[in-house]
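step: validate -> pass
step: tokenize input -> pass
step: predict -> running
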Amino acid sequence: MKETDPFLRTSKVNTNTYAPLKVLEFKNFIACRFIFIMGLRMTSTVIGWWMYELTNSVMALAFVGLSEVVPALSLALYAGHYIDKHEKRKLLIKCVFLYWLCILAFIFLSAPFAADHFNVWTIAILICAVIACTGAIRSFSGPGFSSIISQIVPREILSSAANITSATFLIASFIGHILGGFLIAFIGIQNTFIVVFIVVAIAFFFLTRLKTKPVFITSDKNYWASVKEGLNYVFKTKLYALLSLDLFAVLFGGAVAMVPVFSKDILHIGPIGFGWLNAAADIGSIITVLTLTVHPLRKNQGRILFFAVGGFGLALILFAISKIFWLSFAALLISGSLDGISVIIRSTYLQLKTPDRLKGRVMSINSMFINSSNELGQFESGVAAKIMGTVTSVVFGGLMTLFIAILTWIKSPALRKMEY
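step: predict -> pass
step: emit ->
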């Protein structure tokens, strides 16, 4: 392997873990993203419980994932091109505002008026229609949030900023899942959406505190040439191996999508227990990410990544066969801890190695591989559960994740040797 291989290059970075927090704009950015992600996770928790309560169908849960992934995937490449050609702050303001309107739609659909005037499956279809809108919004907002970081902090503290961003993302996810479960239990579905409505409004306020950002692409490069440039970068740097490994791990490891089913039909726990189980993976990820933020991985990141993905698959198998709440919780906690390693390695590599002029396109491609695979994994899990049964489908997903890790280890020595 040549020394110029981007997997093996190193970068001089500031090792001060908390240096980005001295930048006022970064603190506003973190506050905005933290609150917005918390709102998103509250929404996804409520929708998972609401849809299964409404329909008692695993296929309904599958179509929740499909409804979001289709627009997200369809628009991802265009979104990357658009993000790089437009001012990112203004774009994110539009995205958060539009998501706020989607929460209004959920408030309406969860109201007694909707239950009195529409049948169950009409409401389910309308929920999926709104989710499709959130998927379209996410195709712009996710890469937009990721690509703006390098325009907020200097490059020498970018690695620390990426770690802090990942940590706060996971903490927000955990709090959102927990709050979603508790609020369903104590104030009901519609009132929970009202809380989310307020949360997203607060995120919008912090977003307006960011400064206008420069646009790096000012030429009239056409859409296909722009997209091709982003794709070429991903494939020429072998970044696709890193993204592909995560793609298949998330695709086949979509056990979290079946948590409503495990909660009600196997573990027999209520919405509060469901909230904790839904947050277990996030808790594990938080522990890992906070640990790695303070004590970052210095070498052998590629090898560590493979062991993390393989262990993730084994943890899913343990979750599938467990019929005890605390053991199921522990299995998801472990899976989240191992997934946190993957999150840190991928996000740090992307921030350090991607040029600013390509950030939007590369982050959008990343969202195609990673973020959308969560929803695609939810669809796969729902279909597999319908065909094989819930427990067998999750065992199958864990075994496939383990197989993908072993196969990629054999086929991609560059990824195995990756360091940054």
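step: describe -> The chain has 16 helices and no strands.
step: cleanup -> pass
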